[in-house]
Amino acid sequence: MKRYFDIATVLAFLLLVSACGNRSLGSKIDDQFIASEVVKAVERAHPDLPGPTSHIVVSSYNGVVLLGGQTPRAELKALAERAARGVRGISKLHNELEVAPPTTSLVRGNDALLTSNIKAQLLADSRVASTKIKVITENGVVFLLGIVTHQQASDALAVVQNAAGVQKIVKLFQYLD
């Protein structure tokens, strides 16, 4: 009985969250599956990709997939991209992997704080459609994904540019206009 209650609770939460933004619940679920399948495909591509020599981050928003993080060799970056491209449901793939050693836990912690700070600033700015924007930070590089108008993108960009600690901003938006 508890299991059914847990499932019902998760479904209710997903329905509540799906009311935010402009994507359907189905699209959000598809993105979760796409990201999971990309992670599996990348990990199977080469033993060094899931290992301690690489740090791979995968995110999907409306079928747009971001490969981020670090891997020590250009051939591994290419293998990761090739593996990701083999996953169904991807409309566009952005391979933003750096050929570099993986970041430290301190850098990743700073990235998490920066992402939280940016999300809070986006939420606080009434001009920004914050529920339509996904923020991911890797090694000080802020990636912005979402389905927005050009004006919404500009408003979000203005907020992110003022955040302390941002090294670079990469816009991966899909535009409505």
TrEMBL record:
SMART domains: BON
Protein keywords: Signal
Ranges where the BON domain occurs: 30-101, 110-177
Name of a matching Pfam family: BON
Domain of life of the source: Bacteria
Protein name, UniProt field: Phospholipid-binding protein
Organism from which the protein derives: Ventosimonas gracilis
